[in-house]
Each structure stands twice: as C-alpha cells, then as structure tokens.
Amino acid sequence: MSNVIAMPLTSPAPLNPAWRDVDHASTATWIAVLAAMIGAFMAILNIQITNASLLNIEGGIGTGVDNGSWISTSYLIGEIVVIPLTAYFSRVFSFRLYMLANGILFPLFSIACAFTHDLGSMIAMRGLQGFAGGVLIPMAFTMVLTKLPKAQQSIGLAIFALAVTFAPAIGPTIGGYLTENYGWQAIFFVNALPSAVMVVALYFTLERQPMNLGLLRQGDWVGIATMAVGLSALQAVLEEGNKDDWFASPFIVRLAVVAAVSLSLFIWVELRVEQPLLKLRLLTQRNFGFGTIATVLVGFALFGSVYILPAYLGQAQHYNAEQIGAVLAWTGLPQLLLIPLVPKLMQKFEARYIAFVGISIFAASCFMNIDMSPDYAGDQLWIPNIVRAIGQALVLTPLTSVTLGGVDPKDAAAASGISNMLRNLGGAVGTAVLATVITKREQFHSNIIGQSVTLGRQEVRDRLAQSTHYFMLHGVPDPATASHQAIVALGNSVRQQALIMGFSDTFAVIGFVLAFAAVAILFTRKVQAGGAAAAH
Q: Do residues 230 and 360 both lie within one domain?
C-alpha cells in the first residue's frame, strides 16, 4: 500500500533498520508487531469491558448507579491524558523500556481493581490502569510504521483497526460472560495472561536503546500540565454534567471554568513554544484537518453505540450481563472476517471512498434502530448489529490512511498523538452527550404520552379495569389496593415506553453525527503514492 506514512512516530531512529532493504518483514519483526497489537487490543478492550457489568461491580464495591459510570470514565481519562505524552516519554526513557514498563504496569493495576472495596480506590486503580494502557495504543501504531516495510504496512494497519473497532464491540461480551460465570472480579484478571505474552515477546524482539534523560529539561512542561488538568476537568464535566443538571450545578460550573482556562492556556502555549507537545498547526492541513474531524465523529459514534446498546438492553429489556454480551457479539465477530480483507480493497479503490462507504453503512445501521418498541430486543438487533459491523470494518484502516497519508514524516509523531487523543476524546464526549439525550428525551416523551393517558379516555379506564381485575385474581383481595397497583403498572408502562423512545432518539443522533463524518471525508484529497508514504 503506497498511501501510508512509513516513518517513526515515537522514535527518532527506526527500531529495525533492516526492513528498509526488504519487501517482507522477518518473523521476529512480526512477533514484535503482533505482541504490540495484543497490548493495544487489551487497552482498548478495557474501556468497554465493564459496561455490561456495571451493576454487579457497583454492588460489589458498595456504590450507587449515579457514581458507577466513573469506573469506565476514570480509565478513559487516564488514556486520553497519556496518549499525547507517549511520543515524548518514549524518547526520554527509550521505546523498549517505556513499552515494557507499561506492559507490566497495565495488568498489575488491572488486578488491583479486583481487590478494591470502595469507589475511591476503584477510580484510582482504573485511572492508573488507563494511564498505563493508553501508552500501548499509539506505540502499537508506531511499530507498524517503523518495523514493517511499506508493502506490508496495510496489513499492520488492518490489524490495528481490528484492535480499535473489534475490542470495544466485544468488550461487553467478554465482561458479561465472565461476570455471570465467575464474578465481576474476573474481568480484571483477564488482562494478566495476554499481557505476559506481550511482555515476553517484546523483551526478546525489541532492540535495546539508551535512555535520553536530558530531554526532560527540554520538555513542554507547561503544556503537559495545562493539558492534563484541562482534559481531566473536561472529562469530569462530561461525566457528572448529566447527573447534576449541567450548569445548574456550581460544581460543574467550576469544573467547566477550570477546563476552559486550562485548555485555552494549553492551546496558547502550543502555538508559541519552539517544541510543543502537540503541533496543533497540523490541523490546518487539509487531509489531516478533515480526517481528524471525521476521526473524532467516528470515535463519538463508535464508543457511543457501545455505551448505548448495553444501557438499552439492561434498562429497557432487563437483560443480564451475559445476555447483553451475546447480543453485542454480533457487532464484533463479523469484523474478524471483514477487516483482514480491507487492505486488498484499498489496492483497488481510493481509501477515502472506502471510508465514506463504511461510515455511511455505519450510519444506516443506527437509523435502523430509530423506531424501537417494547418488543425490540436481542433478536431485532441482530441485523442492525451485523450491518454496523460491516460499516465499522470498512472505516478505520482507510480513514487512518487518508488522515495521516499527507503528513510530513517529521510531523508524524505529533499527528499520531493528536489523532489518537481526539478519537478517544470524541468517544468520551459521545458517551456524555448520549446519556444526556436519553435523559432529556425520556422526559419529553413521558410528558407527551402522559398528556394522552388520562382518566378522561375510555381506553385508559378499560386498561385500569382490566389490570385491577388481573391483580385481584392474582392474590390482591382489596379492590382499592388492586386499583392502586393497576395505576402503578400503567405508570411503569408509560415510563418504559418513554425510555425506549429516548434510546431510539440517541441512535438518530449517532446516525446524523456519522453523516457529518462522511461529508468531512469527501473534503479530503487523494493521497499520492509519491508523498509522505513513499518517503523513506
């Protein structure tokens, strides 16, 4: 494949210079790349692996539903903050040492989560787990572009795409199965064996490099500090905003001010310092700018849909964790077959058009879910989930090629950091926005339905009479009590219908967001074979 950047993202020298003279990577090189992909897969998997099991975890550590979502969010905060720092710290501590250290810390913090007994310690351990896991994502991407010859980079990118799209889709499936059969603690032990395989393989295949601790004096520490504070505060606003009615809460207002001031300072610093942490001016480049917009919107939809589906099945259909996982498996499993075929497709068609088709199919799958009813459950989600899997399989590899294909090799590290960070940030924003949409639209639909469900309508009186009769036949001897239970049951039916309609509206939102992503892709240019991709 000729339209992929083939320059190092985090290391100033190639990890294995021998590949420059051959068309095929050695067995040892492929072992190293595949080991890195294990790390990226596990890191992304752990964003969503708790989604189907939150109720079980909340009960285990003694916290309420309102706070339990921090179990996922704290992990995501750690990832978002560390991703743009990875290029810098891998130069300071050496690529090999930095990756091995985080490959060891990631499962250790994961196992520590299983032994927590309160929300505070769980949030701390999940945050540290995310901080270690977030390193593994861009570094796996780096290894594709530094260790594989140009002819094989499309295969490496397809494997990376499998990690990014398949992992969040299959995460709730794995989490649900482990929770129902072995307890929620098993979710956090699942990282141990794959991480051990990864570390051993990388230990023997990555060459040793000296550390460069002198770079610590040249670090953009003001940028690092303002970015870390700003992103953490922003994520906290997104997480707590819906629960606290957004800016009606003084706490949310204060956090929003901290986020706005810190991120504004960060942008100002990055545009002025000689060696910025992130080269934000890259966003003015046409392909990278529009490609990054599409990447953010795809992240919104990818992580948002994986958040919405378990929530719908759990809240509206009362599925347990394992049942939720079985439904979501059909969003993930087809991608195992489809993503490996994408490099072949990219040899025949322009990458931007493949990405456009994939995003459009993804959007169509969301619009298939906008008319859900109380009978709309696992069986009805089967076809939309398979359509979603087809769309997602066609998106990430060509989108990455289009976004990074025109970037100058010397700017590749900065471009990768921006792209990976903003994709995850888009997912965090998507989760928060969709949670708010559910709440607000449920209230809206409940009010609309409630205006029609009045005792002045004969259908309502008939329904209450039938329900009262039913309760009296099933052990409620007092007519007044039976009548009260009938009214309660009718109210519950109204709330369930309003909730389902609220979820339907979120799928419409995701569909429209993806439509904007597809439009953004059309503004990119074809990546030429003689551009950055061919610069060796």
A: no
